Amino acid sequence: MFLFCCLRLRNRKCDGVPNVGKLLYGKRKNAIHTTSKAKPSVVGLLMQVPESELRQAAWRAANVKELNKSTLSEVLKKYRAVNRLDRSEVVVAVADEFSLGLTSSHYCTLMAHANDNKDYQTALRYWNRACSEKKANEKVHGALLATYRGASRWKDAVQHYNAMLEDKITLDPYALHTVMNACRRANACDVAITTFSKAVRSGASPNSAVYLELLRCMQQLRKPNQWKMSLEVLCSIEGKVDLTAGHFNATMATMGGALWTKGVELFQTMKTKNVQPSKETLSTLTLLNPNNLPHAVQCVAEAHTLGMPITDAMYRAVLTNLFRLKLDHEAVRFAEREFGKCNEDPGNPVNASISLSLAIIDGLLAHNRPQEALLFFSTFETRLGNVVGSATRGLGTIGLRSQRWIVQGRVAVVDHNVLLDPRCESLFSHYDSILVPFSSIRLLVRRVRELFGTLKGRYTKQRLKRLQELTADQSTPMRVLPMAHQLIAHTYIVDGPITSESVECLRETAREKKDEDEQLREEQRRLTESFFIRKRDALFSKDGFVARVCGSSINEGADVAVVVKPGETPVVSGSGPVVLNSPDRMSAPERVLAVAVMLKSLNPDSNVHVVSPNPVQLQVVEKWNQMHPAIPLTMVRYPEEVTLKAPAEEQQQQPSFDRSNEEVPVTKKASCDRVPWHERRPLFFPS
């Protein structure tokens, strides 16, 4: 049997059938099975080891003499690239145990890494250690200046740089740039220019970045004939350093107002010298004369020709001029055309429509004719709904125009100045509900962008993050008014919502045709002040009457007649704003006033307070109370008058012991009239 099996296997071999098992798993002469002799480096090991084993791995590497100064420098740079300052400190602690000694390069890397993480105390600690070990060279001094700049200690930076000049320490140009940039961020441009002059006299050689910072300081200084000095500096550095678009932009920005034509000439010179324009070049050129509509439109066309992105400031200038000239139909056509160009190449970031959407939002908030602004808003409501969140850092919404805000009790309408105060959360105990206008949030978001890199900009950004937490919590009484309701609120102080009474006034005016001009002149002589028909005027007062307005028929867009009281001058609604100080735009205090007036009109039983530390805001409210006593608003100067005009619940419920026993029940009864806000129904419920 065994012989038969062997013969059978021999026959298979002779048949020519390949042995698959041998081909797959048998030894082949051309196959070399060797293992790699390369071992992981110390840098790779310390980068990949877990956090819990990092100290032990670094200790083993230092024990076998594999962690030396060069390896430590490479490890610190790798950790900075991945932003792991905690791991760097662990490795440095192990290096100190083995007395490896840190070099100036190590200290420079550690301080720069700490500056990246805004951990300025750690950076100063390494600076003090470098000084104690006498390892502070020019690079470490530069890292210290960067620490002072990040910590907004510009005075310390200037003092340290002046001491270095007196000690004749060799510095690179970027140290001077750091000091000047710190001064410019703190709005101390005159100190920056003085430091530049002192450094040049001491033998410093500025580079292109330093000259750019100098021109920006001169731009921000805003002195008379500053454009001449900027132009002289630009001409003097030509040929010495490489000119960029930033140098021309800073010089061009000093030529605003009546000198805007010189800015246009400088832009043409920039194109002649083949200097590539930046994203801010055409925006700066537009802002030289933003009230000139042809100039703004030409800048937008130039951006399309050069294939450059258009900023929201450029779009805002065009739309603002069109609204000011009452060319809202042209503004709609312009926006439709620009949206069409953005949709031609959706993937191209140059054609992004977010800049146009932001400009439309800002333009509608400043529109001086709210009814036309609402028509414009309804045209682009769908497109704006996708941008409102990013325009307000997630705080605002688009809203529904069919809803109204129902509030009760004591209501506070705050402006952006109150939101910047970290103590504003104390208002929760003083008010049943707090409403933040949409325009105030948008103003703060624009300020964060304009003040990017400054201490004020970082603080404003921090306050917006805190507002996100407060508004997201449903238990807090703070809410942000949607954009649609903000635009509707503007109608309450300019045009007034159209009511059935106003339509009847128009019909009555159209039927009476006899002696209209004479009656109008007589009434204008004996009347002094007017107010518009609003939803509150459901019933006319006994001493009120309807002013006769010229016109034989009611046409579309006709002026709304007004109800006036004796001693008031009739003004036709639509002929011009009454409350607005500027006829071209609605200012920020007036937008806050509009929200308060809307809340008071829709909720006459509530007590609406306008809380602001800005005296201009309080003056606007006082002017409104004088012109419209039927809708009284309470002015509250923040924070002095908050406790006086809006006492907290604890203050109301606390009895006064210095009074007689008969007065205590009266105090308790007064405190029971107001129910705590957390026991009421949900606030700001839109119906």
UniProtKB/TrEMBL annotation:
Keywords of the record: Coiled coil, Repeat
Biased composition (Basic and acidic residues): 659-671
Chain segments annotated as coiled-coil in the UniProt record: 503-530
Region (Disordered): 646-671
Classification via SUPFAM superfamilies: TPR-like
UniProt keyword ATP-binding present: no
Keyword Secreted: no
Stretch forming the signal peptide: none
TM helices/strands, residue ranges: none
Protein known as: Uncharacterized protein
Source organism: Trypanosoma cruzi (strain CL Brener)
